[in-house]
Specification:
Order of helices and strands: HEEEEEEH
Number of helices: 2
Radius of gyration: 17 Å
Shape: globular
Structural class: alpha+beta
Oligomer: single chain
Strand order of the largest sheet: 1-2-3-4
Helix content: 25-40%
């Protein structure tokens, strides 16, 4: 019985460390794209599936003001996470076309307005047909 508890604890720890690794990688990618990375305030992070994730971020723009919550969309390609785009209400281009990985193949998709993380998750799920 003690052996079973030990194995269960090890499995849970491994799963948690894998999630933190993806979140940490995502944060580094987002920070690398921001104009003022020191100002970044991160919100919710959701790994939608094996190939995609959404991360809420608010940071200062070129004018020094905060942008408001924006959604960072990430995709996994050749076993590496890539930042696809940081999209918010104020993105001027509509539709916003980006490249994502589907089954390790790059494809183009249109991103609608993303006002919150639920919008991001819904959009990302639509990119991956079942």
């Amino acid at each position: 019985m003690d052996k079973l508890k030990f194995i269960t604890v090890i499995c849970v720890c491994l799963l948690l460390s894998a999630c933190n690794s993806v979140k940490s990688d995502a944060k580094k990618l987002v920070l690398s794209r921001l104009k003022d990375p020191d100002s970044a305030k991160f919100g919710n992070f959701t790994q939608v599936n094996e190939e995609s994730a959404c991360f809420t971020v608010n940071a200062r723009n070129s004018m020094g003001g905060y942008t408001g919550d924006q959604q960072a969309i990430l995709t996994k390609y050749n076993s590496e996470w890539m930042l696809v785009a940081i999209v918010g209400e104020d993105t001027n281009l509509r539709p916003y076309t980006v490249t994502i990985s589907q089954n390790n193949k790059l494809v183009y998709v249109d991103i609608p307005n993303l006002n919150n993380q639920e919008d991001c998750i819904r959009a990302v799920k639509s990119f991956y047909p079942k």
